[in-house]
Write a structure and sequence with these properties.
The protein is mainly α and 180 residues long. Helices cover 78% and strands 0% of the residues.
């Protein structure tokens, strides 16, 4: 067997099995563990620079942190999917959107959730209360302990995030359409 020719290959050879085992214990599922171990190394490979680690402990800490973030994303995505399935179960089958439309809704929900996760917690909460719970600025302000003016600022911040997502979606659609 030849020796690893790159830092990444060496990292993979020496740590992939350990990482997959760590993920299997964390997730209780071998298939998910294999997927996330793979995704962890894909993230490392797709990085702009090759990382060098001074010790096995440093390499494993980096891999474990990256894998932990992927676990959180997986759990968040599954929560969103479960909420969507519950919503579908509550409506008559005749009103269910097509499979393609359902996939689009799930993707949009995941993107909005990720966008809200990047906002300050009060801004994300203000947006959720104002838009989803249909609360007034004063009601949201009371719940968050801020003024109605601050609520409007928070909601505007989240709306800007939503508009950015919409613009990105439009660009994806425009670039994926075949030339006519």
């Amino acid at each position: 067997m030849s020796q690893p020719s790159s830092i990444l290959e060496n990292l993979y050879v020496h740590h992939h099995g350990w990482l997959q085992g760590w993920l299997r214990r964390r997730l209780g599922n071998g298939a998910d563990a294999a997927d996330l171990a793979h995704d962890t190394f894909v993230r490392l490979i797709s990085g702009r620079t090759q990382r060098r680690f001074d010790s096995v402990a440093e390499a494993r800490a980096y891999l474990r942190t990256t894998a932990q973030h992927l676990c959180i994303n997986l759990w968040r995505r599954r929560e969103i999917e479960q909420a969507w399935l519950e919503t579908l179960a509550a409506m008559p089958a005749a009103h269910h959107p097509s499979a393609e439309r359902q996939a689009m809704v799930l993707q949009a929900l995941e993107e909005v959730t990720a966008m809200l996760g990047q906002l300050p917690p009060k801004a994300a909460r203000a947006f959720t209360l104002a838009v989803i719970c249909d609360m007034t600025d004063d009601e949201v302000g009371l719940a968050l302990g801020v003024s109605g003016r601050m609520v409007r600022k928070y909601v505007a911040q989240a709306m800007l995030g939503c508009l950015t997502l919409r613009a990105q979606q439009t660009m994806r659609e425009l670039t994926s359409e075949p030339a006519g």
